[in-house]
Amino acid sequence: MDIKDIKTLIKMVTDTDITEFEMENSEEKISIKRGSAPQIVHYQAPQQIAMPQMAPAQFPSVQPLPAMESASSAAGTATVPDKGQAVTSPIVGTFYRAPAPDAAPYVEVGKIVEKGEVLCIVEAMKLMNEIEAEFRCKIIQITKENAQPVEFGDTLFLVEPL
Hints:
The structure is a single chain. The strands form 3 sheets. This protein has a 5-stranded antiparallel sheet with strand order 3-4-11-9-6, with no helix packed on it. It has a 4-stranded antiparallel sheet with strand order 8-7-5-10, with no helix packed on it. A two-stranded antiparallel ribbon has the order 1-2. It has 2 domains: about 5-35, no CATH class; about 50-160, CATH 2.40.50.100. It has helices spanning about 5-15, 50-60, 65-75, and strands at about 20-25, 30-35, 60-65, 85-90, 95, 110-115, 120-125, 125-130, 135-140, 150, 155-160. By secondary structure, it is α+β, with helices and mostly antiparallel strands. The model is unreliable at about 55-60 and about 65-80 (pLDDT under 50).
């Protein structure tokens, strides 16, 4: 095969949608490939912490707080019912009440939230972990300030199960 025939084959490949052409006979083998080989890029998405599934199995995230009840009664604030429970932080991080600085808070005192509804965000190493309600409840008290650091097990909210 001479150079003129090879140029003709190359033109045929470039003028059509063909990306690869191979031809072989007893004396020669020609392989023409157009474009670069597709690159396979592997990407692993950051893992989201699924709080409702992890919390009961690994640590107590809801605890009765009788000491807080008497403290709030003595201070003259609204009393915490006997069935008041604490929602605690599952990780060390920064507590945020709203999804953005200029956005409304997820919850306020007195709001009734459904199971799975977002209560707040705890940021840990630039990952925003949504803390969700594990059951239908009423927010009795918000115990942390916005952008305040929290430790594992710190009480974030006092809630009344409904």
